[in-house]
Design a protein that fits this description.
With about 475 residues, the protein is mainly alpha-helical. It has a single domain, classed as Amino acid/polyamine transporter I, CATH 1.20.1740. Helices cover about 70% and strands about 0% of the residues. Helix 5 packs across helix 17 and helix 11 crosses helix 19. The relative contact order is 0.18.
């Protein structure tokens, strides 16, 4: 057993703090939110109160109760058993696959602003977007296989892609206000959210901009002193996320009309307009490169953390045992990382392929809409369920103990359930709303059903092997 490789504990407080920033703070959300007008600031506060605070508190305590590798998979397994744990992990890692292409396409389009108007025309080229996304996914996968030190280095550097652009945005907004005044009115009428179905659907998605704080715990056996490090990193990282989203959105609304930052290139379009007004166009190129780095960091953070779930599932023999292999030299779960990275690359290519193949990609995206939220239901339910179990003195409990923990779990569960219900509402421009709803719900049932089949096959195989070994011993 002395020759059996083990995971390397190389992630410290600074690394985990920067991981939470790069995985949770995406500059594209500030522009998407600002396009909705000043009332979105109230929604940010509601999202912070009703989703992020319960999520952060639950993750901090659950990570302290069960600090080992696997995070949300282990918590759900301990609360509800192996079947629920696997379904939770399955939906989590499957729903994240379309995320890689989406965030890297955003990064690909943002980087082009650094090279002038002719380069921006490449934003419409599927070959450019695909090459950018696949190339970065390949590099991210390789770095994470080579070692935790290499993978965390990319995460740490990429955090600058959100911290620096948002800091510069605050300064530019202050200068714009000084010279031109506020571009949007900030009064009681503009700050009051208008409750319509369309707005409610968008607000629910804003809530999940705060998602991702659970991802770091998936690497529990690679974090130094996780019971101490994770809660403090969550607290400080949460403060940065809250300030970044609310202050960044407010800065865009102060500096520019809300319609100026609409669309997928909204953040960089806003920076270009704002830099032009202030006579600082030289800022556009470095800002574009930093925003592209932010997109790369988001993909890197979720690939590195989410790939640990199939690794632990392989150890539990819910997936083929090779997923639980650790590289002897690099001390990383190289099969799980490589398989997950390859799956992300394949899905990226499908998204840019011919019409029939692209249709398959769109079906996969539809499957991921609700599947993305389901693991959070498990997480909050696990928090409530596990309050009935004793916690040792080494466990860091939520302030207020069991009653407060249950309230936080219920609030987070209800916020997630509301978001799932709203995510099934078709968009206004959808020609066949009934078919769109059927695709989302049916796709989710198919995706979850596929996970159930995989789990049942693994259990059947284990029973068959046990019966065969028993028969051999009997003979």
């Amino acid at each position: 057993m002395a020759d059996t490789p083990t995971l390397k504990r190389s992630i410290g407080f600074r690394d985990l703090l920067l991981f939470y920033i790069v995985s949770g703070l995406s500059v594209r959300w500030t522009a998407m939110a600002a396009a909705a007008g000043p009332s979105i600031l109230v929604v940010w506060v509601a999202a912070l109160t009703c989703f992020f605070v319960p999520l952060a508190a639950c993750v901090a305590e659950l990570s302290s109760r069960y600090p080992e590798e696997g995070g949300i998979y282990v918590w759900t397994r301990e609360a509800f058993g192996g079947f629920s744990g696997f379904v939770c992990a399955w939906t989590y890692w499957m729903s994240n696959l379309p995320f890689f292409s989406g965030v890297l396409y955003f990064g690909a389009a943002s980087v082009l602003f650094a090279f002038g108007p002719k380069a921006i025309a490449l934003a419409g080229s599927p070959w450019y977007s695909m090459a950018f996304a696949v190339g970065w996914l390949a590099l991210i996968t390789l770095l994470n296989i080579v070692g935790v030190d290499a993978g965390k280095w990319l995460n740490n550097v990429s955090s600058l892609g959100s911290l620096i652009p948002l800091s510069i945005l605050l300064v530019l907004a202050g200068l714009a206000y000084w010279h031109f005044g506020a571009a949007n009115a900030f009064d009681a009428a503009s700050l009051t959210p208008k409750l319509t179905l369309k707005n409610a659907v968008f607000w629910s998605s804003v809530f999940f901009a705060f998602g991702g704080v659970e991802a770091g715990s998936s690497m529990g056996d690679e974090i130094r002193n996780p019971r101490k490090v994770i809660p403090w990193a969550i607290v400080l990282g949460g403060c940065v996320l809250a300030l970044g989203y609310i202050a960044g959105t407010a800065s865009l609304l102060v500096a520019l009309p809300s319609e100026a930052v609409a669309g997928p290139d909204g953040f960089m379009n806003g920076i270009r307009i704002l830099s032009g007004k202030l006579g600082m166009m030289w800022l556009v190129a470095p800002m574009a490169l930093l925003v592209g780095l932010n997109a790369v960091g988001s993909a890197a953070a979720f690939l590195s953390s989410t790939s640990r779930l199939p690794f632990v599932a392989g150890i539990d023999q819910c997936l083929p045992p090779m997923f639980g292999w650790i590289h002897k030299r690099f001390r990383t779960p190289w099969v799980a990382i490589g398989a997950y990275g390859l799956a992300g690359m394949v899905l990226t290519v499908l998204g840019q392929a011919g019409t029939s193949v692209r249709g398959a990609y769109e079906v996969m995206v539809s499957m991921a809409i609700i599947a993305y939220f389901l693991p959070y239901l498990y997480l909050f339910a696990a928090m409530i369920r596990l309050q009935g179990r004793p916690a040792g003195p080494e466990v860091r409990r939520v302030p207020g103990g069991r009653p407060v923990a249950i309230v936080l779990g219920v609030v987070g569960f209800c916020s997630t359930a509301m978001t799932i219900a709203l995510s099934m509402v078709p968009a206004d421009d959808e020609p066949d709303k009934f078919l769109a709803a059927v695709k989302v719900v049916g796709g989710t049932v198919f995706l979850v059903g596929a996970g159930v089949v995989v789990y049942l096959i693994s259990r059947w195989k284990l029973r068959w092997l046990a019966e065969r070994d028993g028969a051999e011993e009997g003979t």
